[in-house]
Amino acid sequence: MYGKNAWEKYDEAQLKEVMDLAEDYKKFITDAKIEREVVVESVKALEEAGYKPFAYGTKYAAGDKVYFVNKKKNVVAFKIGTAPITKGLRVLGAHIDSPRLDVKQNPLYESSNICFLDTHYYGGIKKYQWTATPLAIHGVVCKKDGTCVNVAIGEDDNDPIVGINELLIHLSATQLQKPGSNVVEGEDLDLTMGSRPTKKGEKDSVKETVLAILKEKYGMEEEDFLSAELEVVPAGKARDFGLDRSMVAGYGHDDKCCAYSSLRALLDIDETPEYTSCVALVDKEEVGSNGASGAHSRFFENCIAELVEATGEPLSRLKDALSNSYMLSSDVSACYDPLYAYTMETRNACYIGNGVVFNKYTGARGKSGCNDANAEMIGWIRRVMDDANVNFQTAELGKVDQGGGGTIAYILGNLNMNVIDAGMGVLNMHAPMEVISKADFYEAYKAYQAFLTAKF
Questions:
Q1: Taking Cα atoms as reference points, which of 292, 360, 339, 303 lies closest to residue 68?
Q2: Mapping DSSP to helix (H, G, I), strand (E, B) and coil, where does residue 347 land?
C-alpha cells in the first residue's frame, strides 16, 4: 500500500508482532553499538539459525546456508536458492558503522587537574550535540604480543560514564556568536576521564590514576593506545519513545535498523528461495565506504565468486551472477519533521509511520554521487510490495539544493546490479539519539522478506 499509515491496518495479533520485533531490535542496538559488536551478534544469530562459515573446496546446493566474515567488520550471509546463482541473487546490503568519536593514537593528557582523552570525530555530526551527554567507550586494544582485549566502559549499571564538558551559559557570550559548525571545535571534543591524583603534587598524577585503572581492568599500558580501536558512543539502552510507545529512541539507527531488519528477514525465511538470498553488512559508509571493510572493497564480489564456483558454475559466469542480481541498499532516509519543514519538499518526503521508504536516487544537488534506479526495477518493486501487503512510500533527501547524502547503492550498481535504496525514515539522523517508528521498522522487515522470496 503506497503512502498509507501502517498503524491503521494492524489487528491485535499484528500489533503484537510489531511490538515484539521492536523489543528484539532494542536489545540488538543496545548490545551492538559498534561494527565489531554487530558482527559478533550477527554471527551468533546466523549460527543459531544453522548458517555455517564458508568452507573452501566444499560444494554447495539449494538450501545450504553459509556466511563469510571479513576483518571482523563485515558479514555476508547466503541462503542458496533453487535457481543457478548465475541467474542472479537477491541482495540486502546495509552498513553497520555510525557517526561517533574515535580515540586518537596518542590521546591521554592532563591539564589543570583533569585527565582528558583526545578524539577525532567520525562521519557527519553536529559537534555541539556530543557535549554534556553521557558517553561510553567501546572497542578493542591489540597489544604487541598479538593478544587483543575487548573494551566496554560506561554501559554496565555499575560502570562510570565519561563525557565532554560544555561551557556554562553564563560565560557563553562569545561562543554563541559563532556559527553552529564552530560552536564546538573538533579539537575540543575531548573526554573527561578523571580528576583524582595518585600522589599529591606530582605532575600528571591524575593521568597516572586513569592509567592505573586501565592497567588493572584491561592490562593495557599507555603505549597500547597506538594499536587500539576505541569508539566513543552514547551510553545507555535504546528506549521506547513517545507516550504511545510507537517509536524507538537509540544510538545508531543509521544504519543498524536496516542491518538488523535485513538480517532478521533472511533468518526468518523458512523455505528455500528460488533465487539465492544474501545479506551484506559493511563498514565505513559514513566516511565514503573506502578501505578493506568498506563497500568499495572487493570482498563482497569475491564472496559471490567463491559461491559461483562452489555451486558448480565456472568463474567466468561471475559477471552473469552480478548483472542479473537485484539489490535493496538497505539504508535510512530523512523523515519529514514539521518543525523543520523548510528543508523538505512535502510531496517527495517520507513520513513517520507510512512504512518502508524507497529512494530512487540520493546524492546532492544535481544527483551528484547517486545511484538512480531504473523504472523497470521500481515497477517490479511496486508489484512485490503490493502482493505482500507492505506499506511503502517514496522520498528524496530533502529539497534539491538543501544538502544531500549518499549510500552504498552506487557502489553495487557499479557491479552492474539493479539497485534501489530501501529503508526507514529517521528523526534526529546522525544525532546521539535517533528516532524511528516501530511500524516503519516492521514494514521494512516485511518488505525485505517479500523481496528475498518473490517468485518473479
A1: 303
A2: helix
Residue 440 is placed in which grid cell? 516503519
Query: Does the pLDDT of residue 201 top 70, yes or no?
Result: no
Whole-Å CA distances, 231 to 36, 105, 122, 138: 11, 12, 9, 5
Find residue 50's DSSP bridge partners: none
Question: Taking residues 235-251, what's their average pLDDT?
Answer: 98
Element (H, E) at 89: strand 89-95
Alpha-carbon distance of 290 to 390, in angstroms, equals 34
Q: In the predicted model, is pLDDT for residue 40 greater than 70?
A: yes
CB atoms within 10 A of CB 296: 17
- What CA dihedral angle connects 134, 139, 142 and 143, to 10 degrees? 20
Residue 39's closest CA among 99, 91, 79, 94?
Answer: 94
H-type alpha helices, 121-273:
205-218, 253-267
The string over 117-139, giving b where at least 16 C-beta atoms fall within 10 Å of a residue's C-beta and e elsewhere, is bbbeebbebebbbbbebebbbbb
**Helices 253-267 and 12-31 sit at what angle, rounded to 10 degrees?**
120
Q: Enter the C-alpha cell of residue 374.
A: 531504473
Give the other-Cβ count within 10 Å of 425's Cβ: 27
Q: What is the pTM of this model?
A: 0.96
Q: Which helix (H) or strand (E) holds 283?
A: none
Query: Tens digits of per-residue pLDDT, 433-453?
Result: 999 999 999 999 999 999 999
DSSP 95-158: E---SEEEEEEEEEEEETTEEEEEEEEESS--GGGGSSS-EEEEEEEE-TTS-EEEEEES-STT
Q: Cell 521492536 appears where?
A: 22
The CA-to-CA distance between both ends of the chain, in Å, stands at 19
Return the pLDDT at 363: 83
DSSP secondary structure code for residue 374 in this structure? -
Q: How high does pLDDT run on average in the chain?
A: 95
Q: What are the grid coordinates assigned to 210, written together?
A: 586513569
Taking the C-alpha atoms of residue 389 and residue 442, their distance in angstroms, rounded to an integer, is 12
Q: Which helix (H) or strand (E) holds 67?
A: strand 65-70
- Which grid coordinates are listed for 232? 566513543
Nearest partner of 106 among 97, 118, 114, judged by Cα: 118
Report d(CA 388, CA 450) in Å as an integer.
6
Beta-ladder partners of 139:
151, 230
> What is the pLDDT at residue 200?
72
DSSP 292-332: TTBTTSSHHHHHHHHHHHHTT--GGGHHHHHHT-EEEE---
Q: How far, CA to CA in Å, does 157 sit from each of 25, 132, 173, 235?
A: 21, 19, 37, 10
